[in-house]
Amino acid sequence: MPQTDTAVLQAIADEASNATSTARTVSVLGSTGVVEPAMLRSWVVLNHRNRRHAPTWVIDSKKSLLDLQAMFPNLGSADQQAHFDVVDGKPIIVPPSSSVFCCQADSPELIRAALLAGSETIELLPETAGGDDAVKALEALGIVEEVSTFTTKHNCCENRVTNIHRMADLVRGHVVMPGEQFSLNNFVGKRTESNGFLPAGAIADGIIEAQVGGGVSQFTTTIFNAVFFAGLQFDEYQSHSIYFSRYPYGREATVSYPAPDFKFTNNSPYGVLIWPTYTDNSITVTFYSTKNVTVEDVGRTETSQGECTRVTTKRQLTYNDGTVKNDSVFAVYRPGEGLDCNGNPTKSAPTTEPPATTTSSESPDQPATTAATNPPATTTTAAPAETTTSSGG
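Request: output the structure for the sequence above.
Response:
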């Protein structure tokens, strides 16, 4: 190749490198995402096919559009996205009015022009098409029947009930993909009044007090049991520190923000639709998928952990191919409110009665113990050590 051609190619490379040296913000229908230099440079290709014009660099259409679609998976209004609903106990797919995705075919040219101009933000337009592909994608998940459901009871019309119902509304309709981990804290976020949560009874160091978001641990216990009977994989959980009769003994969990969290993995080959419902006096969490395992609670054992009691619940899973597996979950209960596993006070008890929104039905924190450091013989689960932060009970 002549030296002049080499110089031209070097100039092209230098121009492309300079244009893609900093991250850019991409905006589509009000949604934004940041494209780092590494991704920008992965889109750059040399265009030298047109012999009538000098070679230049361009943005690869196929790769850039695929990456942008992954960056903006949920464009448009709710009616422009295929989604699940549940009618008469059966999951159905609601097709979109039209499928909206990123981005229009001329987007690569717009990106190149913006990069050369040094624009910090690149405005792109969405593409609109029929919703058949979106519907087919949901159909492929195998969400066709109820695979587990669990209900817990509560009193009517308290602040904690508002919090439980708010969490249910936020989670309803979410699909956990095969192999995906679901984190309750990551999905719902911090419980704040601006996000619809109210002050209610919670536990800090074993003592009941009012906290914004108190009561949401009842939702956690309910979804914990839906996970249990769906045969899914527990990744992180923590039991209440004191047993309360509204929950199954040894088979329950609490949550606070940012910890303890509740996490599980959908280790089935099908998608799992989370569908909470509620009445004035109860919360129910139902999972829809394709049933590939039958689950039984086959009993529990108790051991002493200082003054505390460790309860191990064994789970038997019988898969459709006849394979039988066993694992377990655990809970550790303190000897009483405000006491640790040595029988000592966790902190000074309050001198006044709890506020009207507080009930003694929950106790989110638990003694320091993890499955990693002191597991039951067959457990495959993990739970975080006790934190001193408060949590909604």
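The chain has eight helices and 22 strands.
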